[in-house]
Amino acid sequence: QASQLEARASVPPTALRQTAPGRYETTLPLGDDTAPWLFHVTGALQATAGWMPPYAAEFVPGDAAAATARLIARGQAQPLTAPEQAFAPTLRGRQAGAPLAPWLVTIVAWLWPLDIAARRLGISWDEVRRWGRRWRKSGRRESRSASRSVASLPVESPPPAPPPSQEEALAARLKERLRGSRR
What is the mean pLDDT of residues 115-122? Predict the structure, then answer.
């Protein structure tokens, strides 16, 4: 049986149910959650126990003036001398920059597939620089001569053929010898 001291309504006797060896539980209506409780357990054993809820932090005994001064210092506020001061528009907003994390994550999300493609395709930094130069040149050319006709655009000549390698030169000499020996 449990009862709440100084409660308006008494708690009816409640049977405890066994949840484990030597452990019994029940659910009780709280009623006034700030009043102390006194528990009387009867059965094979008789026991009495009490429980007192802890005080809220603002009701703990102490120096109220010092606590108020600490709160004022923490909030950088002034004590109010008149009630209308509570509604005065004295608050200043703080300036905050935009967070960089979403922008950086977006940039990484766009660049990551390009990095993977470059690694899989074996694209070197020299090729990337060449593409950048071509892109910049084509952009300048288009902006300078937007009114020029297609026929007047300079045509790039194909790159010169690379000199024959040693293997190709040796193969050509062997072919000449074979042709000469057959005649």
Answer: 85
